[in-house]
Amino acid sequence: MTFLLQNIGVLRDLLDLSLAALIIARLSRLLKEGMALRILGVLCLLAAGHLLSRLFSLQTVRLLFDTFLASSVVVLAVIFQTDIRRTFAALSRSRAQSDVEMSDVIDELVFAVAGLSQKHIGALIVIERGISVDNYLAVGTDIDAKVTSELISSIFLPYSPIHDGAVIIQRGKLTKAGCFLPLTQNPEVSKSLGTRHRAAMGLSELVDAVVVVVSEETGTASVVVDGKKTDILDLPALGKLLRRLVEPRWLK
């Protein structure tokens, strides 16, 4: 008992350093695993740890918690930088009203996708919503034409010089074609997905666009929003989904 009393300070320091090392290792693992949804829980644990370290006079652990809490704003900004950028872009960009009836545009898109899917012709169609996609496009040819199924189909024919890129629809008009999109950097995306799907996911991770993809290999159509792919089972389902995703953005 006497030995313990004499060395309680040493034991407390050892416990202090051990807890600090354990906390650093655990937080590093959480960040490496990309558990952004657990950030709120981590902040609560940091706050609780701060209070406990003060209660038990663990100076090293307290300093560690103080440092993490002080830098939490920067950490959150880094982790959620994409969402913050998208939010500010949406707030700063005025939404111009278009005379084009989006319902007609969607009908033309569905007809085009039906023909391309039946012939197993790959396609990549971007529908801009609240955030401009202009800053994320590479190459591309300006068109500025009415959206028709015939025009879209002709663009993606194998002998077309711009069939490999994406078609861009902005404010109800087909404005560009043959555009290259940023590929997703998400390591969790299946390696079996082709370049078109990876491009659709990459762009939709940066802006709120709706991207329609037709697979050249299988002829199946997919809709990609926020980096998530939804396979389309039939054409009515495609039209219904596009109306739900796009038309509300065009209402006054």
Structure description:
Helix 7 runs antiparallel to helix 10. This protein folds into two domains: 78 residues; 149 residues, 3-Layer(aba) Sandwich (YojJ-like (1), CATH 3.40.1700. It has a seven-stranded mixed sheet, sandwiched between helices. With 252 residues, the protein is α+β, with helices and mostly antiparallel strands.
SSE diagram, text form:
Layout lengths: L1 H5 L1 H25 L6 H17 L3 H12 L1 H8 L1 H12 L9 H17 L4 E5 L10 E9 L2 H7 L10 E5 L2 E8 L14 H12 L3 E5 L6 E5 L2 E5 L2 H12 L6
Parallel strand pairs: 1-3
Antiparallel strand pairs: 1-5, 2-4, 3-4, 5-6, 6-7
Helix pairs in contact: 2-4, 3-4, 7-8, 7-10
Summarize the structure.
The protein is an alpha+beta fold and about 250 residues long.
Q: What characteristics describe this protein?
A:
252 residues, alpha+beta, YojJ-like (1, 2 domains, 7-stranded mixed beta sheet, 10 helices, 7 strands, 50% helix, elongated
